[in-house]
Every structure is written in structure tokens, then in C-alpha cells.
TrEMBL record:
One of its GO terms (biological process) is spore germination. Pfam families: Spore_GerAC, Spore_GerAC_N. This is Germination protein, Ger(X)C family. It is found in: Membrane. Belongs to the GerABKC lipoprotein family. GO terms for cellular component: membrane. Residues 23-199 form the Spore germination protein N-terminal domain. Residues 217-370 form the Spore germination GerAC-like C-terminal domain. It comes from the Bacteria. It is a lipid-anchor. InterPro entries: GerAC_N (IPR057336), Spore_GerAC-like (IPR008844), Spore_GerAC-like_C (IPR046953), Spore_GerAC_C_sf (IPR038501). Keywords: Germination, Lipoprotein, Membrane, Palmitate, Signal.
Length: 374
């Protein structure tokens, strides 16, 4: 009897590890979504547009369609009273269920962004199939046209769009924001988050068959609503303050001469002191650069280097002051100064130009001057 119980228990334990892929999804039964666009139609219902892979792309090892004229994706739309309702209504026109675990891009229309996206993003953070590291995009273009663009490089437009917004490390004029990062920034005391504003344009004036994605500016969200935009220079000021400058080229003008500095790395530190009901912030920025190019006949002397560094410091301060000015205009704390103030004094910051003062100290370094002697 004991042996019987022993073997029965052993068999039952073995069966527990033989469940297999009980929740598997066959490729022939699903549509793999690469990007999803969110808009509203005239009746106020949500309209979702999906960019899904074609099965033939999955069969090609290099992920390149058999014909250069053929895209690796196709797009279609569905509508519903809610985001989830619209997603399930997609099965009314497709015999396969949408699969979002590989979704990389979420495109929000400018109209929906102005109305607020707190509830719009709920399903993307709540439902287990969605990825919290998918990137957020705002556009003023028609969502269907945007996702169905004929891009010249990648066979999958969502992949090319992802690469474009991730190129911030090369230009320091934009910043990719995932759903998780957006939610985290929106839940701070400042409740402010930037999102890339992307449009499509032709590579050449004469070309109309293909389009390229272009990060035109950064959309500023305050309390989950689109309230304004940052130019490339204003966004760079935000990156200086946040210490997120990676790489990029910074032209410095001295009279008629231009010196292009290649940004190597940077760091920042912000301190705050309260005095007579006013918050005094001190922003310290340290940056290292190389001289990458010069439009000048001047010899690279120590005095000229000091002049370049002085003008470079002035330009950095101007970038930060521009984004600070835009913060006061939009009445939203883009630099997240309120979070720093709260961590020091456990009180909310009264964010206005009469109650906040920011002094900027820049320490620039030019390390190398390239392969030229002069």
C-alpha cells in the first residue's frame, strides 16, 4: 500500500511538470502588432489603427520582403467605445486575434492628447499582453497615413520609427519616452512629461513615393494633457538640466567664426534653498567636448579656447533659460524643480517666476582638437 501511494504521488508530481505550452499562440492564429495608433472619430468613439506583420516576413530570415516594392506590414482599423472594446472589435474584420507582446510604438493623435491620455494609457499598463517599454509618440498627421507610411530603409515602419526616436544619443535634441517612464514622470509632484512629436515628410522635394519620420519637436504633457511644445533647443536645455546629454554637435559662434563642439558627456546637479518664501535653485552643469570642426583661420591658442568655452557656457545657459521661460509660460514644471524642492522641504513648490529663482553654473572642458595641429 505504501508503495502504491509513493508511486501515485510520484506520477502526480511528474504530471505537474508535463503541462507543456498550455497557453501557446500559434503564428498562424495571431496578428503580431508592431505599432498601434489611437484617435477618435466624429462620433467620439475610439479609433485604433494597427500595424501588423505579414506572415511572409516572418518566414524570411533577414526580415526583408521578397520584393523591394512590398512592405513587410499591413494596416487596418477598428472602433469602439473604449480602447479594449475597439481592440476586440478588430476580430469583426479579421479572423485572427491581435497579439501585442511585440508592440513597440503607441501613436497618440494630437486631438486625443489635448483631451488627456490618463485613461487612454490605462489598458497599456494594466493588461498583461502590452509592453510597458513601448515608446509613446504624438502626431498631427492622420494616424492611418502615419502608420501606413512607405519608409525607404526598413521593411517594418515601426522599427524605423523606433530607431529614429532612439537616435537622441547622437543629437541631444529629442528624448524617447516609454509608457512606464511617462507614467512615472506624470505621477511626480511636477506631473509633467515630454513626448516626441513626430511627423512624416518626403526625403526630397521631388520624391513623393516614400516618406521619412521626423522628430519635429517635443510635446509637453501636464497632468496627462498636452499643453504645449518644446523646440529642439528648449529640449536640449531640459537635457542639460537633467544630466541626460549623450552626444551631439554644438556650434559655437565667435564673430564670423564657427566652432563645432562634439559633446562627449555631461552631468548636472541641482540644489535648492528657501529664503523669505522664495525657492533659490542652483544648477551646476559639467560637460566635456572635443573640437570637431572650425570655420576660422584663427590659430587654436589657449586664449581662443577660453573664448570658445565662455561662449559655449553662455549658450548652455541660454538653452536652460529658454526651457525655464517656456515652463512659466505653460505653467508647468518641465524641469521637475518641484520634486527637488519637495524632497528637501516636504512641501509643494509654488511654481511661478516670482517664487522661483534658478542660477546656472557651467563648467565646460574641451579635451581634444582632432587630427589637425591648428
Amino acid at each position: 500500500m505504501k508503495k502504491f501511494v509513493f508511486y501515485l504521488t510520484l506520477i502526480l508530481l511528474t504530471l505537474a511538470f508535463l503541462t507543456g505550452c498550455w497557453n501557446r499562440k500559434e503564428l498562424n492564429d495571431i496578428l503580431i502588432v508592431q505599432a498601434v495608433g489611437i484617435d477618435k472619430n466624429q462620433s467620439g468613439q475610439f479609433k485604433l489603427t494597427y500595424q501588423v506583420l505579414k506572415p511572409k516576413v516572418l518566414k524570411t530570415p533577414t526580415n526583408i520582403p521578397s520584393s523591394s516594392q512590398q512592405k513587410g506590414v499591413w494596416c487596418f482599423s477598428s472602433t469602439g467605445k473604449s480602447i479594449f472594446d475597439a481592440i476586440r472589435n478588430a476580430t469583426l474584420s479579421s479572423d485572427k486575434k491581435l497579439f501585442f507582446s511585440h508592440n513597440k510604438i503607441i501613436v497618440i493623435s494630437e486631438k486625443v492628447a489635448h483631451q488627456g491620455i490618463e485613461n487612454v494609457l490605462d489598458i497599456f499598463l494594466r493588461y498583461h499582453e502590452f509592453r510597458p517599454d513601448a515608446y509613446l509618440i504624438v502626431t498631427s498627421d492622420d494616424i492611418e497615413k502615419f502608420l501606413n507610411s512607405n519608409v525607404p530603409i526598413e521593411s517594418i515602419p515601426a522599427k524605423e520609427l523606433e530607431n529614429v526616436i532612439k537616435n537622441y544619443f547622437a543629437n541631444s535634441k529629442t528624448l524617447p519616452i516609454s509608457i512606464y517612464e511617462f507614467q512615472k514622470m506624470s505621477n511626480t509632484k511636477s506631473k509633467t512629461a515630454p513626448v516626441p512629436f513626430v511627423t512624416i515628410k518626403s526625403p526630397l522635394k521631388q520624391s513623393s513615393q516614400s516618406q521619412m519620420f521626423y522628430v519635429e519637436k517635443m510635446a509637453v504633457f501636464s497632468n496627462y494633457k498636452l499643453v504645449g511644445y518644446l523646440t529642439h533647443e528648449e529640449l536640449r536645455g531640459l537635457l542639460w538640466a537633467a544630466g541626460k546629454i549623450k552626444r551631439g554637435i554644438y556650434p559655437v559662434k565667435l564673430g564670423k567664426d564657427i566652432f563645432s563642439l562634439e559633446l562627449i558627456q555631461s552631468g548636472s546637479n541641482i540644489n535648492v534653498k528657501r529664503k523669505l518664501g522664495k525657492a533659490f535653485f542652483t544648477l551646476q552643469i559639467t560637460t566635456e567636448t572635443n573640437l570637431g570642426e572650425k570655420y576660422s583661420n584663427s590659430y587654436i591658442s589657449s586664449s581662443l579656447v577660453e573664448k570658445i568655452k565662455k561662449e559655449f557656457s553662455k549658450s548652455i545657459r541660454n538653452d536652460v533659460q529658454k526651457v525655464l521661460k517656456k515652463s512659466f509660460e505653460l505653467n508647468c514644471d518641465i524641469l521637475h524643480l518641484g520634486d527637488i524642492y519637495y524632497s528637501s522641504y516636504k512641501k509643494p513648490l509654488n511654481f511661478d517666476k516670482n517664487s522661483v529663482s534658478v542660477s546656472i553654473v557651467v563648467k565646460p572642458f574641451i579635451r581634444r582638437f582632432g587630427m589637425m595641429k591648428e
